[in-house]
Input
Amino acid sequence: MAGILACGAYIPRFRLGRETAGWGSPLEKAVGNFDEDSVTMAVAAAQDCLRGLDRSQVDALYFATTTPPYLEQQGSALIAEALDLRPNVFAADITNNLRGGTIALRAALDAVLAGSARQALVVAADCRMSAPRGELERSLGDGAAALLIGRDSGVAEVVASHTITEHMLDTWRTPQDTFIRSWEDRFIIEEGYQRVVPQVVSEFSQKTGVVPRDIGKVALYAPDARRHQDMARRLGFRPEQVVDPLFGKVGNTGAAFTLMLLVSALETAKPGERILAVGYGDGGDAYLFQATERVGEVRQGRRLVSRYQESRRILPTYETYTRWREVWVSEAARRPPPPVPSVSALWREKEENIRFYGSRCNACGYIQYPPQRVCTKCQAADQMTPIRLAETYGTVFTYSMDYLAGTIDTPLVLAVVNFEGGGRWLGMMTDREISEVRIGMPVELTFRKLRTVGGVHNYYWKCMPVRA
Output
């Protein structure tokens, strides 16, 4: 037996919406900040999932996305380091398929059932782009979801699954493409989505004997709101059975979409309730889960979909979003270009920069970052214990705003943060409203991208206002 032990999600803070000048739509969609991508969002969703759990028990990590930051580098390896998983964890990327999230789920279930992993973490994230102001752009959204799979039935046990694989060139993107391409709309919907999804659900029903009336909730993939509503009706599900697809609020989050709806279903599931999750992309997947008596544990200390959806801000202008995505490139700052990050230094300093470890003095208990050999308070030498600070909350001790730094997000806010329990750190602040920045402001750390120079993505931690 295998099941879901815990789940988590991440939705960026910012939205394009009715009040966004130049957006021209009453619908909202979630958009990642300029320093966010599929890797940073995956880290945030996994942190939400693993909150309060023993990470040393995680044996495998599967990362699903259609928008990896590197085409020849493993995103899952970077995510594993940022999450401070064991060095001998198995990590794999599942890319280039909208069904990547449910494919990764299958890989995790198989690994757990086969005994090669006690616990397997599935993380899916996407940050897809389409041509500006097109119909497709209004349906897409950025976000991530995470599931921890184990041999214990946990909060929900897997009952059955079914898969169809079929090549369908409906939407695609080459390495040279910035925006998603697609074929004629009627063909890709009628011969793709509207044919494959009913087929996989019908075959699943024949295989298991489970019919729509036996299902409590259905987490159903769809390219847009109209097709979602039509498909749910075709399959015979009542409106109260269908999990809110978040169109007009978040949008279709690509490889993470079905898993995000599954997480949303688990938030409100009752013990014994059956949940059907259906994915689509070069075929289709159907998974049936049954909530256990412990399903209420998923909400303990986690933000999941609902709390992230509540803590949102509307971008004032569409131009801000296009600058973040470098769709409309403005004049570069008139100063020397930044140097290419040293790959040697990135590797050498990963314990403090990626895993975010400081040190605690064994003699006086003083916490310091970056880690030191000699305590800056009592001068004791080589008496330090590593301490991870990435999940530590803090408050702003002081800050400054730099309007001349040449950053995309002017002004650059630098903050000195006092961590709860001790320790002080100087770093950048992101996802902030300038009018709200103040001394004493509660903040948390978030894994973000500092810059990309020479094809090298330089990741580090920043602080941001607490998302509560």
Summary: The two ends are 35 Å apart (CA to CA). The domain at 3-172+182-324 is CATH 3.40.47.10 (Peroxisomal Thiolase; Chain A, domain 1). The chain has two domains: 3-172+182-324, 355-465.
